[in-house]
Amino acid sequence: MSALPAFEPAEAEAKLGLASWGPLVTSVDIDDAVLAVAQTWMYTHLRRLKQERGIELQQPREWAIALTDAELLDHPLPAVVSETARMDTAQGSVRGGTARFYGAAWRVAVSVTVRGQDPRQTRRAASLYEGVLRRLMVQHAHDEPLDWIHFTGMTLAPVPGDQRAGRYLLKGTSNFLVRSNNLMDPTGGPNEPDLPDYVYPRAKTVEVDVVKEPLP
After folding, report:
1. DSSP letters along 151-191, please?
2. Which of 25, 54, 148, 200 has the greatest count of CB atoms below 10 A from its CB?
3. pLDDT, tens only, 102-111
4. Rounded to whole angstroms, how far apart are CA atoms 19 and 7?
5. 25 and 186 in contact (C-beta within 8 Å)?
6. Which domains does the chain have, with CATH numbers?
């Protein structure tokens, strides 16, 4: 058998008559992409902050995905955490149809959690980290699946769970609207399902003879 020519994966599938599945973007892909941008650019932007304000902040020690604030205590601090990445469909942000790719907008919250020895110091550090994170995301998050990004607001919020005297825990959160242009392709996909063995044999309709007998 001769070797196949060197096609791109989509081209090779087309040549072989296989299905073109198209893209698939999930919420965890958004989280991973956000954290990758933050991890790549944080050091550079922290150096710039020192030049601008004479303030030196520690490089974050953790880059993680979390579901609840309680999980933030599981990470060494400061920690950059992408807590949510949900698709916003209520305002018509999902678009697509039978003839074009679907695009979608995600509501993304990214936080930097810090621990300080007094309220002023803790608030100052959380606020500066949030500002650095906000600026680097807006300036650098422009590659798939983060095809477009818009800053929508920020919050500073205490993190419960660390009640020891002289220790304060605060997170600075940047909120973004992130658009993915290629969420999925409605024109792709296989023509026949791959059914596992346990599905067979398929149900069949059979004829049944009914005999009517008179009642005694």
Report:
1. EEEEEEEE-TT---TT-EEEEEEEEEEEEEEEEE-TT-S-S
2. 25
3. 888 999 999 9
4. 15
5. no
6. 22-161+168-185 (3.30.2000.30)
